[in-house]
Amino acid sequence: MEQDGSLFQELITQTCRLEEGIMYLNPNGKQRTPVTKWKCKAAIPSSDSKSSMEICPCYLLTVRVIRARNIHQADVLSQTDCYVSLWLPTASPDRFQTKAIQNCKDPVWNETFYFRIQSQVKNLLELALYDKDVVTQDDHLFTVYFDIAKLSLGEQVFMHFKCNSQRQEELEVGFALENISGPPETIITNGVLVSRKICCLEVRVVEKKKNKKEKKSVSKKEFSFKVQGSYEGTQDIMLGSDLVFSSSSPAKFHYARYKHPTLDVTLPGKKPAPSFGKGFDLYAKAEDCPDHLDVRLGFDLCVQEQDFLCKRKKYVTPALKKVLQLEQDLLDHETPVVAIMTTGGGMRSLTALYGSLRGLKKLNILDCATYLTGLSGTTWTMSNLYRDAEWSQKDLDKQISEARKHMTKCKANSFSLEYMKYYKKQLCQRRREGRKTSFIDLWGLVLESLLHDGKDNHRLSDQQRAIDRGQNPLPIYTAVNVKNNYSTLDFKEWVEFTPYEVGFQKYGAFVRTEDFGSEFFMGRLMKKVPESRICFLEGMWGSLFSLNVLYIWNSSHSSEDFWHKWTRDKINNIEEEPLLPVKLHELRTRLFTPPGPLGSALRSILTDRLCIAQDHNFLKGFQLHNDYLENKHFCRWKDTVLDTFPNQLTQSEELLPLVDTGFFINTSIMPLLKPERKVDVILHLNYSAGSQILPLDQTCKYCSEQGIPFPRVDLSEEDRKKLKEGYLFDGAETPGAPVLLFFPLINDTFQKYKAPGQKRSESEMEDGEVDLYGSCSPYSTYSLQYTEKAYDRLVQLGEYNILNNEDLIMQALHTAVAQKRRLKGQCTQKGTMLALTLRKQTDPA
User: Fold this and answer.
1) Is residue 456 annotated as part of the catalytic site, yes or no?
2) What is the domain extent for residue 108?
3) What's the rounded Cα separation, in Å, for the pair 589 and 147?
């Protein structure tokens, strides 16, 4: 049949529903030879015991937007022209809306919308009321958040949402939840995140053969295909006059099978029909993707870390026996897990950590440690150390000398024209790889030149070589995930980096370190991007430039409460009629009132960050489980204002904005408080500027609010005014808390002693004058260069403060061993009593 322009125009707006199987479409949009097939699978446990594959039903949700009452006048000259927008992102990527009712404060719509929802997903429907404007942007009046979990299957309810009691504003909506035909859906979940069934659609276009007499067209035809909500989004296919689009290179789309997927086809521009010849055939084929995930869903330690722990014990157990001077070997259950935790502080923390580690090495404590964590400047030290696969088995003199060379060299060369060209070339290379670059990437390259000779090809995954036999502590680097338009106190999520994995403790989601920065969708690796050189991670871990106005205010005034009315969303619980029976896991119905132009502008000024690192989000596409707020793992880290707004959490973002952990709390302790790591002793090495006790106080407050076992830090006013070199908090009053050793960076007895028990001579007194925090101190957090004398003195101070507190460290280790033995004894006693009780119950005598 001859293809005419009207049929082409008809297909431009034609939408094709995607089902499993194969369908062939003519240009007029009529379907030919549909093939549909259903498969049902039994529940299969995944390889991770904390995640599982489940078969769960889908339901049909009917939403009828009925009417609104007493809507306040948004325009000066007329009543509102109201319409309602519906958004349920767990069911459809599209936003739907009613028609606009002109000039009416009591609009009536009576429009019905249908959604297919997954029963095990947290489905939060957003009903937004707008006033339509022709000239300016539509006014957003309010949004109602309604949890579909409130509804009962098979029932129909009509809800009256009281949006403003003073003005008696009300929105009336009807809901019905019913079973839906078809098989259930197979999902993979860890109780917090849900990965749903993914399909791959292949689309190809075949140009119909022309008659021999017909002249060949020299024009090219471009087809545009779009699957809203798919990983690919939109793709174009270009055909020449004689080209038949090859089946070997179709356009592909990966999408969630049950989220109302549609294929939108836009044909070549409006041209006369003869230029298109006899038309085209469109072939579409959809197939299920494998259920295997490339994102690990689970809260257990990864297999590689578990294997490392077994190997590390072969170093730790004999080392503990030696330093504690024990007569007998420690049993497995008696061996405490010891961790070294550091804080940030720019080059000051980089330098002082070298000294602390050398002190621990001289006390043979380094072989007793299982973990070493860092942030900001201490990550620069760690990444240098782990280039050497045997670093903790050596005296560290070589590493300290190498760092000294770079800390004292002139930094002007790092900003030379030659280096600028190198930076530009490297940033262009990252963009070609598919990364979004920022000033933080440039800062990482500057750090590379400051701390190394030439290009450094080291990558984080390369550090696996330094822990493959358990010969060094496992390094953990930390960052926080933030969100645009929110202060760090309102939204932050801990992210940990090891040579094995990068992931969120809060969501129980991890990817291989080699894959961090690659593109993922619903847990599947879609586009592999080469692993970043570690300098780019160092730039992000120590991103001194990712601050905002609120952070500066908070740093100087110790509170940002004054600004909360400007930077927090105005959200209130609202009344609704009728009162539905309270369901487990349901969220309260809430009302969001958008700020005015002044409030929005001020919020942007206060919360926007100067620059930020952004990597592809490996949580993209996941959805939250219906019970996620009750999951004990999620609750442990649930502390953001958006935790009860599942549509706005991290899985909905394209990119991860990651910043230095110091922009929340200057500590790298959080990975060590993960219960699965079972850390017994933490050596808290503090290198902060200003108050030495502040990061520890903030950690205590955070852990108390989150219900995380942590020792109570009980310091007298006298101690707070004049800190000692070391403190021991045994955590006896807090069950499950680790033993904490706290080492502030202070210059106390070092002024008079060059080594423990060795007083300085008159000629050596000058070497003890280390001005750490004075106005003329060379150790400012933003200082990039030290003199040789300043560098040596800071290293010596860090080492001395460790060596001078040997007894305190030994006391902590003895305490931990005693606690382990006592805990084992209690477990054995309980087991014996239980066995005796069972014997009495089963013994007739």
Assistant:
1) no
2) 58-183+549-594
3) 7
